[in-house]
Amino acid sequence: MTDPEGPSVVALGGGHGLHATLSALRRVTGDVTAVVTVADNGGSSGRLRGEFGVLPPGDLRMALAALCGDDDWGQTWARVLQHRFDGQGEMKGHVVGNLLIVALWELLGEHVDGLDWVARLLDARGRVLPMAITPMDITAEVRGADPAEPDRVSLVRGQVQVATTAGRLTSIRLDPPDPSACPEAVAAVRAADWVVLGPGSWYTSVIPHLMVPDLRAALEQTAARRLVVLNLGEQTGETSGYGPEDHLGALFEHAPDLRVDAVLVDPTSVRDHDPLEGAVASAGARLVVADVALGDGTPRHDPVKLSRVCARIFGNVSGSAAWR
């Protein structure tokens, strides 16, 4: 049961990974804020972004749907929000929630107000904010994008293109390089008890938050404790060949001053404990090894399992030994 007096938690990410985190956190506390990456350039979001010049609404919509309650009202609206039109006309592929969000942005002229109104309509168990209020693109340096030239480093532009590229990503940048952070998101991070990073597409959903200057400063300076939830496995096109320690290493490569208090990993994703334990110890964090996988053969987190482990972490993070 959700604790209305639970800690204030801010979760950062995007897409399906953030959806799982928020679905877990709304079961733990009544004070949840999602800070969502906004660099998508594909699908319905990309089309609306191109036509109206707005932030891509898709990941914001998914976060709102994740915060819907388990009652009939919440689950009905979650399904409506996520409904994708079929057919053969211009509406094919558009998602109801994306259209609703953009409509409110046009009517109100303000991103945060529009998202707050959608949350009120859904009776969402939390707040959803964009990480930045500036439309942006992700660019990545990729080694070996052309199999014929495995050592050549090339530049790939666009979230969809980065997420599906061949080769190995070495770093990402945002264009523009200094997008304006959402002030409400910065304030939420600074005021939080806990900040949760991950899981999700590492280079296109998680790390981009660290590339927004004011948001990165807030993440480094906040008095909140920080939990990193590692992916259950590598992601083809972004983190091929990565182990959990490589995911953690990529995080610190982009934000070397980021302090972490706890790192959560599912035991099935750890091939060799020593490198991961070394990386976690170097960060001064506590390693939590716990069953959080959905267990259906897909690399997805189970929101119920994740909620139980998060509640445990939020209640007791002292010490430095791994939890097994």
TrEMBL record:
One GO term of the biological process aspect: regulation of cell shape
Source organism superkingdom: Bacteria
Gene3D superfamilies per UniProt: CofD-like domains
Example of a GO cellular component annotation carried by this entry: cytoplasm
Subcellular location: Cytoplasm
InterPro entries: CofD, CofD-like_dom_sf, Gluconeogen_factor
Family recorded in the similarity comment: Belongs to the gluconeogenesis factor family.
Its job: Required for morphogenesis under gluconeogenic growth conditions.
Protein name: Putative gluconeogenesis factor
Gene name linked to the record: yvcK
